[in-house]
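ugh ok so i messed up the first submission bc i forgot one of the chains. this is the corrected input, ALL of the components this time, i swear. 232 residues overall. if the numbers dont match what u have on ur side tell me asap before i send this to the collaborators (the ones from the other lab, u know who)
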Amino acid sequence: EPEVTQTPSHQVTQMGQEVILRCVPISNHLYFYWYRQILGQKVEFLVSFYNNEISEKSEIFDDQFSVERPDGSNFTLKIRSTKLEDSAMYFCASSEWQNTEAFFGQGTRLTVV
Amino acid sequence: AQKVTQAQTEISVVEKEDVTLDCVYETRDTTYYLFWYKQPPSGELVFLIRRNSFDEQNEISGRYSWNFQKSTSSFNFTITASQVVDSAVYFCALSEWVGSGGSNYKLTFGKGTLLTVNP
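and heres the new structure output, hopefully the right one now
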């Protein structure tokens, strides 16, 4: 069964460092997303990506964040200068069409120290 | 603005009991979608169901059933004969159809309900 895969599963980084979270969406999906979940809290939308551009982003997704689809399979989230409050589980998701079900990866736990 | 409320923070039941998880939503749109996701202790988000706003028919899938009541803006989830493996956080989520191109899509999640099923 096709699935969304994320690497690494856990990343520890020092405050101020850049971090790149990687995702491989399901191959025939056209819409890609990043969400985050601060420990014990609800899942929050960060950004949606379609046709090689951002289609919507939340207030959380400020200038420190960027997304890229560098090739036909990967979808990345970059945080330029991490802050302590960026510590969270980051989920990548993809869907075949708009408003069809989004399938989530297993998440990357980012810890900023 | 859209909003999803899951008033039950935690529920604890004994195995084989039925349990209903409540979800109330707010949206200005007439076209929208409702979802339930399961987050087991391992952390991943598992898709359970998607329902569009035009389809109020209730759905049953094995021990799971969903009751969509547009009149009360609720989309409740019932697990029949609960099992220990059902222990997880369950999230209700809402998406609106945003933009004529349909390429804007995001899920608004509720805060989740932690279900613990004890043997």
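quick check: Chain B is about 0% helix and 50% strand. that seems consistent at least. The first strand of chain B starts at residue 3 and ends at 5.
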